[in-house]
């Protein structure tokens, strides 16, 4: 059997097109029977079949083969669509597995869980322990709110909020992978100096100072396009984000980052209109963005666009959060940045179970 992957230069987790040229019509009929689970297939001729797999379907199909040259060729195709996110102290294979990236706000004014107790060390350590126990792979600390209309603080104030919690989490949970959400070069340097693994910048590393930090430290990063600066490449969000992240990944790579160190975030909820439709459009870029071969972050937890669409307060947005997250996972999003760790773990388990059979 001849196996041909179409569009070999196009990375995908959802649309992997493979053409099978069988030796006879009988062999083609046998193959069609083996493809009973795959609805997206076309018999082009008596001996030729075109199938579009997602990464889960292709993995299961490969497993159905006994050792043979056909299986090896399919494994090679599967390997070309492997998705890794890594840093100095971690490596996640995100090809089929999603991870939880927990939000720990060290702020009194964040849109969902902002409270004075967020500034107390005992509360922070309790949250960190709980999130780790419920399945968080990464703990992200943020020292200032980035919600629409937030009150800014100085970089030094932000660092003072973060310094002790970061050091104490590292001391109490030495295996924890730590991230910091900041848009300040000064804060980036300070937290990297004490061993933080990941920097998440809502402005996508948009200044010379921040890019210099990246060049000097080579951290794993999350780069966002939040929409606040307008469009530069296209008149629609789908082309705009694709072009933005293509250019941004090239820029970061030129500073010494490996592609496996770069995660991209479509910036849902940062520039939301009264209807919330622009945020839904950004959700719908997920599959398009995965074609860049970079991990896509799902960062929609309880955001205000759900209130605009469904008329619900922040405490009532868990259900819609989980529904949108499931949709983005099926489109190839793999890193779920969330407030509700236990509930998200159940969601991931359910989606992955669904795709296993």
From TrEMBL:
Signal peptide feature range: none
GO biological process, one term: tetrahydrofolate biosynthetic process
GO CC aspect terms: cytosol
Essential cofactor(s): Mg(2+)
Claim: Glycoprotein is one of the keywords in the record: no
GO molecular function annotations of the record: dihydropteroate synthase activity; metal ion binding
EC main group: transferase
A family per Pfam: Pterin_bind
Keywords of this entry: Folate biosynthesis, Magnesium, Metal-binding, Transferase
E.C. code: 2.5.1.15
Catalytic activity: (7,8-dihydropterin-6-yl)methyl diphosphate + 4-aminobenzoate = 7,8-dihydropteroate + diphosphate
Domain of life: Bacteria
Pterin-binding domain: residues covered: 98-349
Pathway in which this enzyme or protein is active: Cofactor biosynthesis; tetrahydrofolate biosynthesis; 7,8-dihydrofolate from 2-amino-4-hydroxy-6-hydroxymethyl-7,8-dihydropteridine diphosphate and 4-aminobenzoate: step 1/2
Gene3D superfamilies tied to this protein: Dihydropteroate synthase-like
Family as reported in the entry's similarity comment: Belongs to the DHPS family.
Family matches, as PANTHER family: FOLATE SYNTHESIS PROTEINS (PTHR20941), FOLIC ACID SYNTHESIS PROTEIN FOL1 (PTHR20941:SF1)
NCBIfam families named in the record: DHPS
Protein name: Dihydropteroate synthase
Species whose genome carries this gene: Lactococcus allomyrinae
